[in-house]
């Protein structure tokens, strides 16, 4: 019976005498089957305790790299910093690398610099482009797990994806908007920050599919490449609604919602329904003021927890923990969860 523990420790765990444990370990006769099973169970429990102690004593430094508007990076930082406390005594030290707009080449240089400097894991929100996929492969080859956050790189060597089912989120938005029109015609402005992000593309695909199949009387006008910033998104929105007087609903995939609303107000255009994503500070305020009707929310702390577990699993056992998409919740002005 292979083990690395002292006889007295096994005896204490099993509630038996050291003589009895010694007899079991050395295969001597005169021991009941039930007693032998108690000794085996004690060894298994001691192994679990040792593994837990090893994990608890570990410190992990991870790098969180995101191309995203400030309002979303602020929410992500808060989620990760809050979730760190739940893993104590295991310690995660998070190093944040955020920018509202980054060229793929800049992201690649940053990822390579992190890899060469050393890290226990990378959490990444980045465009799904070949050079980023190649940088993820280099990190993986160096033994650094990469967890994609809210937008996936499914054809890369990333260890796991942490985020919502984006296609289902898009379908949910289509359902909310389609049912609001109740068979009447309408035109929806769909805003993306950039078509380079797989997560936004998946939301749009889900939205278009359900609108086409179930609400064919509703048209879609798309704007993109505003990167979720108010200035660019507002300009694009003003141009789109000036060109098409039929636009009377908004599905905001990419953010910049204050600027979108300002553009409609400036032209005195009514919005029948406005569906947005993420409970950042801007959307909380707009929802509370009834400026937007619904926010499709998923728990960023759950995403952080999934990322941490993946990195722990990969570092300690070589295998990332199993993960599943976080749940999409429909939030109204009357059921907003408390921040934190």
Automatic annotation (TrEMBL):
Highest taxon, organism lineage: Bacteria
Residues annotated as domain HTH lacI-type: 8-46
InterPro entries (UniProt xref): HTH_LacI, Lambda_DNA-bd_dom_sf, Peripla_BP_I, SBP_2_dom
GO molecular function, one term: DNA-binding transcription factor activity
One Pfam family cited in the UniProt record for this chain: LacI
Keywords: DNA-binding, Transcription, Transcription regulation
Gene3D superfamilies attached to this UniProt entry: 3.40.50.2300, lambda repressor-like DNA-binding domains
Protein name: LacI family transcriptional regulator protein
Organism: Rhizobium gallicum bv. gallicum R602sp
């Amino acid at each position: 019976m292979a083990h690395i523990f002292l006889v007295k420790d096994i005896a204490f765990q099993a509630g038996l005498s050291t003589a009895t444990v010694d007899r079991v370990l050395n295969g001597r006769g005169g021991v009941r089957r039930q007693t032998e099973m108690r000794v085996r169970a004690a060894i298994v429990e001691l192994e679990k305790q040792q593994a837990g102690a090893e994990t608890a004593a570990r410190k992990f430094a991870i790098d969180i790299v995101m191309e995203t508007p400030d309002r979303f990076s602020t929410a992500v930082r808060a989620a990760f910093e809050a979730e760190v406390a739940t893993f104590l005594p295991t310690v995660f030290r998070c190093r944040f690398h955020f920018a509202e707009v980054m060229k793929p080449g800049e992201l690649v240089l940053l990822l390579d610099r992190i890899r060469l400097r050393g890290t226990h894991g990378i959490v990444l929100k980045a465009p799904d482009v070949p050079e980023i996929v190649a940088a993820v492969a280099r990190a993986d080859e160096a033994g650094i797990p990469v967890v994609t956050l809210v937008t996936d790189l499914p054809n890369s060597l990333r260890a796991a994806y942490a985020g919502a089912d984006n296609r289902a989120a898009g379908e949910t938005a289509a359902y909310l908007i389609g049912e609001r029109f109740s068979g009447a015609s309408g035109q929806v402005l769909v805003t993306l920050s950039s078509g380079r992000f797989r997560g936004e593309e998946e939301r749009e695909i889900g939205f278009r599919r359900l609108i086409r199949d179930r609400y064919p009387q509703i048209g879609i006008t798309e704007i993109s490449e505003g990167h979720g910033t108010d200035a660019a998104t507002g300009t694009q929105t003003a141009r789109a609604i000036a060109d098409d007087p039929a636009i009377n609903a908004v599905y905001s995939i990419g953010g910049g919602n204050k600027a979108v609303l300002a553009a409609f107000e400036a032209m005195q255009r009514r919005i029948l329904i406005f569906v947005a994503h993420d409970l950042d500070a801007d959307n909380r305020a707009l929802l509370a003021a009834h400026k937007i009707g619904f926010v499709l929310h998923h728990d960023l702390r759950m995403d952080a927890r999934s990322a941490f577990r993946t990195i722990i699993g990969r570092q300690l056992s070589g295998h990332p923990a199993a993960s599943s998409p976080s749940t999409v919740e429909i939030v109204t002005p009357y059921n907003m969860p408390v921040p934190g």
